[in-house]
Specification:
Blueprint (H helix, E strand, L loop, with lengths): L1 H21 L7 E14 L13 E9 L21 E3 L15 E10 L9 E11 L1
Parallel strand pairs: 3-5
Antiparallel strand pairs: 1-2, 1-4, 2-3, 4-5
Length: about 140
């Protein structure tokens, strides 16, 4: 009887871990998020903010989702405590965004990507944008 109870508990724990892992988004997942679209300025080269007078000013689009992200494999361990509050729109895809969406509530369809370069200003990015819909 003890072996049966142990086996059942083990099975329940394994199933819980699998479902918890399956709930996490991962790089490459196609997603659709709703939230407010904003444009923010960051300092670029040569000093990336160390010399604001001479550093390039870069403007990036961000989606602030209605609900913060809860689990994105590889992103939640980053140093930023607010890693889940916004997602940068990939630089290439930012050309697809019409300025009429600025500060509007929208739905964006795209793909999850993790930050990999100095140009990435959030741990989670949206890339390969296939649609933006005004809500």
């Amino acid at each position: 009887m003890k072996n049966i109870v142990q086996h059942v508990l083990f099975t329940v724990l394994v199933m819980f871990n699998i479902s918890a892992t399956a709930a996490c988004l991962k790089e490459g997942d196609r997603v659709s998020f709703s939230g407010v679209l904003k444009k923010e300025m960051f300092y670029g080269p040569p000093g990336w903010g160390e010399n604001p007078e001479t550093d390039e000013k870069v403007y990036d689009w961000f989606l602030y989702p209605d609900k913060p992200l809860t689990c994105v494999t590889g992103a939640e361990t980053r140093d930023s405590p607010n890693w889940n509050k916004s997602m940068q729109i990939d630089l290439i895809d930012s050309d697809k965004i019409d300025s009429r969406y600025l500060n509007h509530h929208v739905t964006i369809d795209g793909r999850i990507e993790l930050a990999a370069t100095a140009n990435d200003n959030s741990p989670v990015l949206l890339t390969d944008i296939s649609g933006i819909h005004d809500n």
